[in-house]
Amino acid sequence: MNKSIYRFAQCMIVLGLATYLAEKWISGRLSFYINPRFVVFTWIGIIGLAIMAVIGLNPLFAEKQSLIDSQNKTEPKKQKTNMVVVFLLPLIVAFLGLSATVILPMYFLVIVIGLTRLTKFHTDQNGQPQLSEISGAALILLAIPLILGVIVPARPLSTSSLNTRGMSLSAPVSIGQQSIQTMEIAPDDRTVLDWIKIINYEQDLSPYLGKSANVIGFVYHDPRLKTDQFMVGRFVITCCAADAFAIGMAVDWPDSANLVDNSWVNVKGTVDVLTIDGQKVPVIHAQAVNPIQAPEQPYLYP
Fold first, then answer.
1. Which residues contact 108 (CB under 8 A, 6 or more apart)?
2. Model confidence over 210-235: pLDDT tens digits?
3. What is the DSSP letter of 34?
4. How far apart are the C-alpha atoms of 12 and 20, rounded to whole Å?
5. Cβ 16 vs Cβ 52: under 8 Å
6. Positions of E strands within the chain
7. Which among 36, 240, 241, 264 would be 20 to 30 A from 25, CA to CA?
């Protein structure tokens, strides 16, 4: 593989990663992977990757074009198109909010344009490409994260992951330290996480028992519950999807057996306390359980 083509491929993979992250950020799907408070680091990453790609691409085309101009004894074209700007088009399109069906074809198009120009730059007098012995194995390793990101759809976690993660009945201590803010939230506006923080960390529960609850979450039939009960759960992300864990409130509902796991519901009722495995758990004596569509943002963030 020609050294310049090898460098070009490296730069395009790096630029592809920047474009991928930009598309996920603009589309809102980045929050499927990380807590929104860490998005600023993704911005820094996008900018850094784009700069790396520009630094690598610019010499490949600016110097080679100058060499051709000097060999042909022609003056450099003052208004010629900067190739680096052309290569940044997929990233620009991603920031404009266009879908991946537009970004991907444009990304491959600029790759073809770049390879065509590089092939023109690196030919001998007989018109044959000049090759050198460079392995492409490192390129494949570099491209794996980008390839997996493109072919694997961005989806939130589902109840199937509970087979390995389980359903937590309590919130971590770091979450409990935020309970003062939770107390200020109106009962009907509290999430599953808010109610769990109250039950876990408040000494006197009397002000909260019997209060109305209005929460949304996915259905999960926990084996620790009775047949007329289910868990209304949410996944919580403190840092990234790798540390996501599920939390849930028990729900008393006579028709529990007919609810499908991983379907989303809106539960309204009054709050009480249930003890499971020695752990206090909030339970809703449901007055209504209504099926709903999964929210655009399915996760909760402490």
1. none
2. 999 999 999 999 888 999 999 999 99
3. B
4. 12
5. no
6. 167-168, 212-220, 229-236, 245-252, 264-276, 279-292, 299-300
7. 264
Rounded to whole angstroms, the Cα distance separating 12 from 63 reads: 18
CA distance 29 to 302: 18
36-75: per-residue pLDDT in tens? 888 899 999 999 999 999 888 888 776 555 545 555 555 4
Q: How far apart are CA 82 and CA 87, in angstroms?
A: 9
Residue linked to tokens 């060999």: 71
Question: What Å distances lie between residue 154 and 21, 28, 58, 167, CA to CA?
Answer: 12, 11, 33, 22
Q: Which two tokens stand for residue 102?
A: 């537009």
Angle at 6 (CA atoms; ends 53, 115), nearest 5 degrees: 80
Q: Report how far residue 166's alpha carbon sits from residue 106's, in angstroms, rounded to the nearest whole number.
A: 42
Task: Say what the pTM is.
Answer: 0.73
Whole-angstrom Cα distance, residue 80 to residue 272? 72
Burial of 137 (0-12, 13-18, 19+ CB in 10 A): exposed
Cα–Cα distance measured from residue 55 to residue 62, given in angstroms and rounded to the nearest whole number: 11
Alpha-carbon span 65 to 78, nearest angstrom:
12
Radius of gyration (C-alpha) of the chain in whole angstroms: 27
Q: What is the DSSP letter of 88?
A: T
Walk me through the domains of the chain, giving residue ranges and CATH numbers.
3-151 (no CATH), 159-300 (2.40.50.140)
DSSP string, 90-135: HHHHHHTT--HHHHHHHHHHHHHHHHHHHHHHSB-TTSPBP-----
DSSP 8-state symbol, 152: S
